[in-house]
Amino acid sequence: MSTDAVSILDAARSALVPVAQQLTDAVSAVLAALYPEATYVTVHVHQGQAYIGEVYTADGCRHGGPYRSGRALYPTHRIGSWPLARIPKRAARPHVGPHAGDAKRTLDMLLTDAWRCGARFTRGHVGRHYTTYVKLR
After folding, report:
1. Contact (CB, 8 A) for 128 and 40
2. Which residue in 91, 89, 81 sits closest to 136, CA to CA?
3. Residue 65 region by backbone torsions, left for phi larger than 0, else alpha for psi between -120 and 50, else beta
4. I want to staple 136 with a disulfide (CB 3.0 to 4.6 A). Which of 7, 29, 32, 114 is the partner?
5. Could you read off the pLDDT of 24-66 as tens digits, one per residue?
6. What is the full DSSP assignment across 7-53?
7. Are 85 and 103 in contact (CB under 8 A)?
């Protein structure tokens, strides 16, 4: 019995798409826990890598996140590159499980893996911006 490699590859990719969507949902749930007022997070895919961009509220305004002593606790332009171990456990553990303490994986890496496995992000308007985004709520 001989099967061609292309159909095996297609079958493997189609099997990974639901898992990739679950991974995208887990990342958006972590971000929703960190930014309670936010509704959208922009995602940039460039040269095979997915990056978290800006965080927006429902009306399309940028959301800076919670502040303490005049500084953002979770800077939106850096949160994607933080290791999962640096993200508060109350936000990460319910969604990524035992990997919440991982010092090497980041949210950007998880989004990249999901994109490579077949998850696709929505393109549309967030306020006045036409962008690729993940809906948090």
Report:
1. no
2. 91
3. left
4. 32
5. 999 999 999 999 888 999 999 989 899 999 999 888 888 877 8
6. HHHHHHHHHHHHHHHHHHHHHHHHHHHH-TT--EEEEEEETTEEEEE
7. yes
